[in-house]
Amino acid sequence: MHSIENNKTILLVEDNLAQIRLVQEILKGTEMLRNLAVVRNGIDAMTYLRNEGEYTRASRPAIVLLDLNMPKKDGRELLAEIKIDPNLKSIPVLVLTTSNKQDDVRWCYDSHANCYIRKSGNLESLFNCFQKIERFWFDTATLPPFPKQMKANQQRIEKLESENNLLQQENYQLKEEIQDVKNQLQQVEHKLDLILDMLQNKL
To answer: Rounded to an integer, what distance in angstroms lies between the CA atom of residue 143 and that of residue 101?
Structure first.
C-alpha cells in the first residue's frame, strides 16, 4: 500500500481500451505510469474510491482523470457523486474528454470539476498535456490532505496488515517447530522399536 503522506496515485476512469493503452504508452518509463490505476466505468470507480470489493487495499488517488462518456455510470454521474461525498469531494477531478460542447464544459464546472481538458488525438500534444498535469498537480499545487476519518482508517488497515504479516511469520515458525517435534518423536519411536527388538531377542 502506498504511503498516505506521499501518495501520487492517479485514477484514470476511461472505458476505451485503445485510449487506456495510448495513455500507458505515453507515460511509459515515467513515475506517473507507476502510480496509474485504471477503471473502466463509473461504478467500478466508486467501488475503487470507497475501497470496496476487489479494491479494499487500493490507495486513495491524489487526482482523478475522468472521461465523460462511459457505460453503466457515465462521467457526469460519477463527478456529481464524488463531489457530494464528504470523504471524496476534496479529491481533484480533471475531466479528460474529446467533447468540446460548451454545455459539457459548463456542467462540469458547475458540478465542481477542478479542470476540463479536451483530449487531443495527437500523441505529442497528449504527452505534453500529461507533462503539464504532472508539473502542476504534483510539483506546483498543494494537494488536499486526507480526511481525518479516512486517514485513520487507512492507518488502521496498514497496522492490521502489519499484524497479519507478523502472525503469518509466527504461524510459519510454529509449523516448523511442530514438524521438529514430530521428527524427534519419530526418532524416539524408532529407538524404542530397536530396544524392544533387542529385548525380544534376549528372551
So the answer is: 29
What pLDDT sits at residue 151? Answer: 56
Q: What is the pTM of this model?
A: 0.69
Tell me how far apart the alpha carbons of residues 85 and 87 are, in angstroms, rounded to a whole number.
Answer: 5
Q: How far apart are the first and last CA of the chain?
A: 70
For residue 153, pLDDT beyond 80: no
Element spanning 152, H or E? helix 148-202
Q: Which residues pair with 115 in a beta bridge?
A: 94
Radius of gyration of the chain (CA): 28
- H or E stretch covering 127: helix 123-134
Instruction: Kindly report each contact of residues 101-110 with a partner whose C-beta sits within 8 Å and lies 24 or more positions away, as own/partner.
Output: 104/68, 107/76, 108/68, 108/76, 108/79
Minimal CA–CA distance to 115: which of 146, 142, 87, 79?
79
